[in-house]
Amino acid sequence: MKKTLILIAILLGYHGYSQNKLDGYIETGLKNNEIIKQHNFDINKSMYALKEAHSLFYPSVSLNANYTKADGGRTIDIPIGDMLNPVYSTLNQLTNSNAFPALQNQSVLINPDNFYDARIHTAMPLLNFEIIYNKRIKKQQNYLQIIELEIYKRELVKEIKIAYYKYLQSKEGIKIYEEALKLVKENQRVNQSLFKNEKINRTAVLRSDNEVIRIEANLETAKQASNNAKSYFNFLINQKLDTEIETDYQNELLPTTMVSENTQNREELAQLGLVKELNGNVSKLTESYWFPKLSAFADFGFQDFDFEVNKDSRYYFAGVGLEWNIFSGNKNKFKLKQVAEDTQKINSQIDNVKQQLLLQFQVTQNNLKSALEQFNADKNQKESARKYNEDITKLYKEGQAIYIELLDAQNQWVNAQLNTNIALYNSWIAYAELERANATFTLNQ
């Protein structure tokens, strides 16, 4: 019967709890958080890296030009005079003329002098598996950045919720101490009046004075703790630390434990799965060493001496290149073995993380159940302490109870309220941790 009542309270509490303010703060935190902005920069960077990898499939075109001026150095000797002068001499004798003059042997510089070459060079890969697998790896690296951001967002949402609940817890604690201060001050007034009328001794007055001082000190501590909680909450959502926090909660409403295990959809597992796929593409990239690379190129331009430009200066030069690595001292073989070991390591990590996430879910779910049980126990004790305090207060005013009994009853009442308040928000904190462990919070993309 008790468990049924608890479950009903849980379900009613969860659906009745208003979190519009908290949802707004979460949205603000996700929008303003500097770490998220930095992650977005990394995502944009990886996206540009992917586009860069895709651009390698397209041809590259460049303008190349050079001009050379040379003198001295190696030459090519051309004995044109020795070869043609005897022939020319014979022709002159036959024609009885000097139509064929004598020629000098020529010596031509190997380095061209006063020579220019301007061309447009185009190159394009036709078959290159390294480019293909490089693009796949860049794409997966981009996905990894996105998943890493999702993981951080979930952690941030949990921290914002916990900070919010702790702030509410501190504010409620202040209210409890303020009410307790009113109570002990009334006791102080009554005891001073009774002492003047010689109905009690001075010990009761001194004790009531001490209680006022103690509660005032506790109240001040609670206020400072609340200020710290407010500052930390504002820090998480990137607001000024002293910004007031708006709340719209109803007291003593509980979260739900009715959630199904969802750890298989955790981003951490998706991240490891993607790392495994990426490692597979790294393996294929390494294996692509054995495949040939085929590329084409073409040059269109002008070249001549003395900056001459005419139809004979124009030229084109095109071709196809093949590169096929034959042997590299087993370098890639050992690289493949390293990748294979990484794959085994990732498989082991996946199995281990699955167990860790399942354990985390079970622990947080049990913690929530325990927190709910504790809240209900503290709530019952609070009701008993309230009635006990009312009864002792009435008896004390009638002179049928001593001050130490009244003080004990009031302390029980204050402590019961504090414990119930702590247990209430510990339940919400436990729910936030369960929600994180189960990845059930819906993140706006």
What do these coordinates show?
Belongs to the outer membrane factor (OMF) (TC 1.B.17) family. It is found in: Cell outer membrane. InterPro entries: OMP_efflux (IPR003423), TolC-like (IPR051906). Residues 336-385 form a coiled coil. Its main location: membrane. This protein has 445 residues and is an alpha+beta fold. It has two domains: 2-64 and 127-296 and 328-438, Outer membrane efflux proteins (OEP) (Up-down Bundle); 74-111, no CATH class. Helices cover 66% and strands 12% of the residues. It has nine helices and six strands; from the N terminus they run H-H-H-E-E-H-E-E-H-H-H-E-E-H-H. It has helices spanning 2-16, 20-32, 34-55, 80-95, 129-196, 202-236, 267-287, 331-397, 403-438, and strands spanning 60-68, 75-78, 106-109, 115-127, 293-305, 314-323. The strands form two sheets. A four-stranded antiparallel β-sheet has the order 1-4-5-6, with no helix packed on it. Helix 5 runs antiparallel to helix 6 and helix 5 (129-196) runs antiparallel to helix 9. The protein starts with a helix and ends in a 7-residue tail after the last helix. The model is unreliable at 1-18 (pLDDT under 50).
